[in-house]
């Protein structure tokens, strides 16, 4: 039986233990021993040594130093350092998407451009955290003070009825999409109390998703788009690692099995075809 590792930060691992255990069990169906490793227990060099001879490392944390060092040791990582770094920097994500012709949420580049209300974000926040709707300059100053040691960005507030679309992409395939709508909050994250329903992408939306995927060549990511009232959308961010609670709620497919079949087929046993 071949071996691979799934890597989490301890706090996130505790929140996702059921998912981790399902992945470990799914791996056994494909003759793969998947082991959990926590970044809290390893320095970068120690994790590289621990993962030697692994078929791949399924990296579910956000410190790109680990990914870069694993790659330098010729250990395949899901996702690559390019994807991990891009997904965890909202500014880089939007700039990159624009070069591909994908419509994105605009960015304010100068204070003279600010119009209230506006949205203030840290570039590396996730899960709807560290995103603030500022009604005036006083609100903005509070945010700037709170996050003065962090990279941040400022965007216009775009009315979308607190609605966005999360798209899950595995390899080159869209495996699911969900429309999320916020409840008493301009953010639409399910974990913040939003509602969800399955969503069918149109041809243009599929083109946008595949344009991003073809450029970054990820293994498993999420893409989040603001869904406007006229049916158009704007890329807001990409997620790595991506959560899947709403996938579990709305789809019958066994996500851990889908993931293991794809990853084992790509990195361990070519006889398994996704």
Automatic annotation (TrEMBL):
UniProt name for this protein: Alpha-aminoadipate--lysW ligase lysX
Ribonucleoprotein keyword on record: yes
Every ATP-grasp domain range: 67-264
GO biological process: SOS response
GO molecular function: ATP binding; metal ion binding; ribosomal S6-glutamic acid ligase activity
Broad class of enzyme this protein falls into: ligase
Keyword match Ribosomal protein: yes
Origin species: Kurthia zopfii
GO cellular component, one term: ribosome
Assigned keywords, A-Z: ATP-binding, Ligase, Nucleotide-binding, Ribonucleoprotein, Ribosomal protein
Cross-referenced PANTHER family: BETA-CITRYLGLUTAMATE SYNTHASE B-RELATED (PTHR21621:SF0), RIBOSOMAL PROTEIN S6 MODIFICATION PROTEIN (PTHR21621)
EC number: 6.3.2.-
